User: Fold p-loop containing nucleoside triphosphate hydrolase from Neobacillus massiliamazoniensis.
Amino acid sequence: MRFDHLNIRAFGHFTDYELLFDPSKNFHLIYGPNEAGKSTTLRSITHFLYGFPVQTNDAFLHSNTKLRIEGLLKKANGQELFFARRKGNKNTVLDGNEKPLNEELVNEFLNGITKEHFLNMFALDHVRLREGGDSLLQSGGNLGESLFSAASGISMLRKVFEDLEKKSGEIYKKKAQTPRLNKLLKEEKELAKDIANCQLKIQAWKDLERTFTESKKKIEDIHQQIKALRSEQEKLKRIKEALPKMAKLREVTKKLVELGEVPNVPENLEGLREAAQSKQNNAQNYKQRAKQDLVELEDKLMKIKIPEGLIEQASLINDLYLDLKNYQDNLKKLPLIQGEYKLLEERVLSFMKEIDSLQAGLDNIDLFRLSAEKKETIRALCKDQPLLEQKFENNKSALRALDDELQLKQEELAKITDLPDIHELENVIDIVKRAGDIEGNIQKLEIQIEEKKNQINEKMRHLPLWTGTYQELVELQIPRLMETVKKFEKERIDFLNSLQTTQKQIKFQKDEIEKHYERIAELEELAEIPSDDNLQRVREHRDKGWKLIRTKLQEGSLDEQAEAFTKGQAIETVYEDSVRNADHVADKMRIEAEKVGIKNKLLTDIEKFKKNIADLESVELVTEEELDKWEEKWKALWRPAGINPLSPEEMREWLEKHTQLKELVQNLKNDESTLQSSFEKKLHMKQALMNVMSKFVVAKDNQSLDELLMIAERYQKKINGDINNQNNLQDGFKEIKRKMENLTTVKTEIKEKMNRWEFEWAKAIEGTHISETTRPTVAESLLNKYEETIKAYDELQKVVNEQISLREQISYFENRVKELLQVAPVQYDEQHFDLVVNRLNADLQQATRDNDLFTSLSEQCENLKARIKKAVSEWNEAEETLNGLFKLAQCDSIVELEQIERNVQTKKEYESKIIEIEEDLLTHGNGRSLQDIMEEAKQIEHDSIELDLEEIKRKLEDLEPQRSQLEQEHGVVKKEYEEKILGNNTASVLGEQKKESLLAQLSNLTEQYIQVKLATALLQKGIEHYRNQNQDPILRRASEIFSRLTLQSFAGLSVDYDEKDQPVLMGVRDHGDKVSINGMSDGTTDQLYLSLRIASIERYANENEPIPLIVDDILVHFDDTRSKETLKILLELSKQTQIIFFTHHARLVEIMKEIATDSTYQITEINSNVPLNV
Assistant:
């Protein structure tokens, strides 16, 4: 795809500004100075393809609704798409007929590329170029990232990875405390523990629950009694209120029956009767008034008289009356025309006499007419004569001036002596200049070497564990593989983590033992709880006493052990006490069986914790021994280098600093080698200059190369100036000779033209009153006299024609009046035709008015007759209506009909009243039917209703204090019940609700964490896939471009592997040395990124429909040499895809003209849409 043209109709400060892209060229350099509108044009391309943004700063001249950009896109297969883009919310793409166009057609031409993808991949400026170079540095030259970044245009790819890693770390990090997910996990664990502690214990609330249930049952019973009494109370009140309404209903029903039978007539009977009577009265009155009006109109008709035949001639009279003004004007104008004719005749004769008095007469007018050709010929010859004379004089002056200049050139040329040959000197100067600023480079290298030495010494001062020189440091035998250090680091972390975990577990076991002892103390606060060991001890003490008693019974005496058992008391007493004590302990254990079980469980757990502590302390000891062995291996690893290492983390940082120092030392050696080569090159160039200069000027050994070059160039410039001066004089001499020959030829041609003019002059004046000796100025004056004569004669002829026309019009008008008078019904005086026409017109107007009045009065009479007939008809219709009403009401007069109307109204009122009472009863009947309400009232003794209500009221007043007392007592129990039971459950429920909220947050954060991690993995996988698919072709082409952009400072690119065995990009010098991305300058990294970018675009264009590359001043940091090479590469790229290069640097326009022909590119200056090289 390519742009064929872009028309900025209304955008920014542009109005109807068109950019034409030559279809035969694919590289378009668009130049414009600052503030010319380059940035606006760039934005217009993006807005044209993808639409205007919601907010734009380009609507300061044209309003938002007027913004518009048009253009023509063309595919490689020749398919074209013209469309216009306007600002709006929908239908923003229009075709050539201003009709909406489907946006998908534009997307198809763009290969479905989004706006962001287009800006990243196919739009490049110096900022994106610098960001791309920085991205290469940040990635350390990682091959996959470098290729993907250049191909996609995402310059800060490493920052994307860092942002993803930072975002995932903010959500969750292993063994950390502050990330949000870690905090929520800890909070959820603590909440689960709190919920478990809030579980209710059964034994504490059995009695409370029983009391609560019983009191609740009593309250429900008394509520049922109160409810029944209130229901009966409401029923009696309802019947009490309904009794008067029922009595009223019976009374109205009785009146309705007494009214008797009423005819079935319409509800609006009274209205129908009154309307019919009113209609009869109105019809009668209207009929009488119409008859009176009819008599008056017929009298007026009899008085109107119209002359016969006058109206039939109305058309002719009107036409004459319209032409009357013209007739009167013509009568006045005729004498004036005759006077004008006399004046013009005298003027024509006067002109003719001035030219030729002998032939002055109107009959000879044709002798004074000259053809247009003859007049124009004479005028042209009059103009040519002075011009020819002037040319002849100018030619003579120019020949004299050239002859003088020729003499001066000959004298100057004779003064110039023979000039020396300086070709050898020029060759040596060219060789020295192509070698570049050698002395400047030497100075820069010396500064760089000193800076690098200072940098190395500075880094050495900050490198711990080393006090030797940097030369010894780079030769030091240290662990080379970073993975080895990482392995030791991991082992140390594992040992420390294991040791820390073991110590935490020991502390946990000890804390649990302490908590268990505290729990046992809580159980024994009110009374000591015996354990199985206590029971075993008291039973053993009891059994020991029995054995002593049995021994005494068998042997008759006690042994020495009895003294220790009895402690001086009677054996029987001591034994009885031991039996009672054993029974007491056993009873105590039976009574406190639950607490005994808890205590035994706690004691068992304590023993288990103690065993666990012993096992964990053994593990702790083994781990400490393993950590000591690890430390010995770690020190042994560094012993060959004589270094007592710090921790692996610190030594990994130490190794990185060591690697950086080695690279700096290697760069220092490279610079020192380059410096030595530069010194040798300088001496060689200096000697070559001195050898060749010795032939022309004196050169000193102590002069620098730059000074020698300046002297040589100055001498070269002087000799070349002399040569140029000599050549210019010789060329000027030849040019003067050529000009003199040309002037001599021109002089001959002028003489020939003057002879030809004299011949044509004699021929042109033949047949006129101009002689051959008459001067051209006099001849021109005579021509004007001829023209004035003919012009005056033509005006005279117009007056004659106008006089004839006036007379014909007057005669025509008078003849028409005469014809009218022959057929008119009246006679008139024919001497003054204008008065006759006025009189006829006045009579016609009066006759017309009378005729219109007669017609109008006749129509009114007819209307009155029709209205009288209609009134009679309406009276009859009303009579029929009244007869129909009599029949319906079964009566014969208006009086009877009016009485029936009153009966109908009374019946209607009774029926409405009955309905109203019944609806009122139903409304207050609590959903009962009217029949049920009546039956319910019959079952009640009406006179005892008041007494029943008083009894119910008394009972309710007795029950209410009982209910209040019970509810108060129940409220106390309920409060305790809820506090001890429902309170814990509420805490559990609230805890569960909070836990659900935490789990929802955990789910959300976990999903976010997975998304971020997946995004990182997918991006990495995409980068690796792109690298595997495109590494070889893109890297091969990028290597060639990179070598050219760096002016062969680098031979190309290669792939190496870092300490993580990851492929990285390396620059390759001519001698094979490899330079990492970190070792390149900013300018070089920019050139590397540009190389990769161009190679990626070439590959895309080869495999897809090409997309134009939009470039905006990417060469601002490039010198002229690199700018030339870059433009050459872009010209090559333009063979595959269109390139639109914007710049405000005039120097790039000059460079473009130096490196390419007009047929390969197009230059257009903004605000001047004419290409500069067209």
About this structure: The longest helix spans residues 945-1045.
